[in-house]
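Record type: monomer structure entry
Structure origin: computed from sequence
Chain ID: A
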Amino acid sequence: MPKKILTVDDSKTVRAIVRKTFKSFDCDILEAGDGVEGLSVAAKTMPDLILLDITMPLMDGVEMLAKLKSSPQLKAIPVLMLTAEGGKENILKIAKMGIRDYIVKPFKEEVLTEKVSRIIELKPSSEGAVKIRSLTDAAAILVVDDKPAIVQQIRNGLKHTPWVIHDFGTQAAALDFLGKSACDLIIISLSLPEESAFTLFRMIRSNPKTKYTPIFGLLVKTDTAPMQHAQTVGFTTLVTKPIDMLELESKVAKAMNLDVSARYFSSEGETLVLHVPESCTPAALTEISTYLKPKLADGVDCGNNHAIIDVRQVKALDMGVIKLLLAAMQTCRDLGVQYVVVGNPQIIAESKGFEETRSWVFLDSMDAAKAKFAAPVGV
């Protein structure tokens, strides 16, 4: 459930700043213009946190705080006081009444966010969390590595994507960048000197704005000690050198919750086409399997009554590919979708050597597949 934050302030400007500050977080912002209204709203909604101004008409913050703390129902609600610079001395007295912290106006949004995150857990907006982007959308990736050759390898390997790569060789430079810019994913070399990779990881995780940003650890496969450490502290995943760029791209897409179905599925009129790629890595097979039933079901909803399973790019028929094709065929049958399989001479020949595929019938071109569907039923 969203956290409820009640801001009690007679300044509409301050209340607007609070709304803006927490817009990207999973929070409901409640408002009151004075202490009387604030008590009423607090009693009705039981907020998780109250941001309470000191100087207000009708009932000021000190009086409202006293009433909060005397109420069995409301006394446990944490309070963060807002005060002007000249009112800092009063905070020492107010602190004895039971506030969790205070902040001096005017304040920066990041300071407010940081202080609030110490009291309640701030999560990214649920709307943002469930939004699924596609591979065609831009994203910002931060690479922290002091080896230019590795950074260039990542740049080259991902240059076909719309992702923008920012790279820095030190912890300080990376933190400076994160303080000024938003980032969708971070890759940190675990070989940075003096374990600064893990220090950087902790600092990123302690910042509410980057707390849930995916963080990859980059290391040599034989570096077992940092590998175990990274897994223990909670890196999102690990990428080993030499880097398999296809695997990295798949991991990035998965971590950023990207819809990658366009790699494998296309629609041509009433026909849905499954393109099985040349490189049928375990990651690729898993991705296709994940989308298989939803894409075919969506196709049926959109009037796609036919499916072409295209394996012309596949170099060799192995059990991973066979299981995928069996699942695709069965899904088509379950949904009442007519299907054909298009293969190359190598795959067609290899299919005769497996018991599971011996009876499969292949067409040798996409034109033949389309003509099959265009022909009258029974032809």
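Annotation 1: The chain has a mean pLDDT of 90.
Annotation 2: Residues 106 and 131 are 34 Å apart (CA to CA).
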